[in-house]
Amino acid sequence: MAKKRIIIGLVIVSSLLAVFFLPGYTKLQELKAEREQYERRIFLLEEYNRALQEEIERMHNDPDYLEKIARDKLGIVRKGEIVYRKDAE
After folding, report:
1. What is the per-residue pLDDT for 16?
2. What is the pLDDT at residue 2?
C-alpha cells in the first residue's frame, strides 16, 4: 500500500512539474531559435556592410573604378564620345 502511495505521489508531482515547467521550456526553445535567426541576419548584414565599405573605399581611391561606375550606372560620357546603345527587343 505504501509503495502504491509513493508511486501515485511521484506521478502527481511529475504531472505538476510538467504542467508548470513545460510551457516555460517550450518558450525558451522558441526564443533560442529566434535568437539564432537574428544572429544569422546580423552576420549577413555585417558582411553586406563590409562589402559596401570596400566599395566606398574603392570609389575614393581608384579613379578608374569611379569612372567605370559613372559610365555604367549613371550613363556619363566624355566630351566628344558617341554612345551606342543596344536596346532590348
Report:
1. 76
2. 82
Integer Cα distance of 25 and 54 in angstroms: 44
Number of residues assigned to the chain: 89
Q: What is the pLDDT of residues 57-74, one digit of tens each?
A: 999 999 999 888 888 888
Give me the residue spans of the domains in the chain: 2-74
**What is the C-alpha R_g of the chain?**
32
Q: Which residues of 65-89 are buried (b: 16+ CB within 10 A; e: fewer)?
A: eeeeeeeeeeeeeeeeeeeeeeeee
Cα–Cα distances in angstroms (integers) from residue 42 to residues 39, 52, 53, 62, in the given order: 5, 15, 16, 29
Q: What is the crossing angle of helices 2-61 and 63-74, to 10°?
A: 100
| Predicted confidence (pLDDT) per residue in 27-52, tens digit | 899 999 999 999 999 999 999 999 99
Side chain identity, residue 73: K
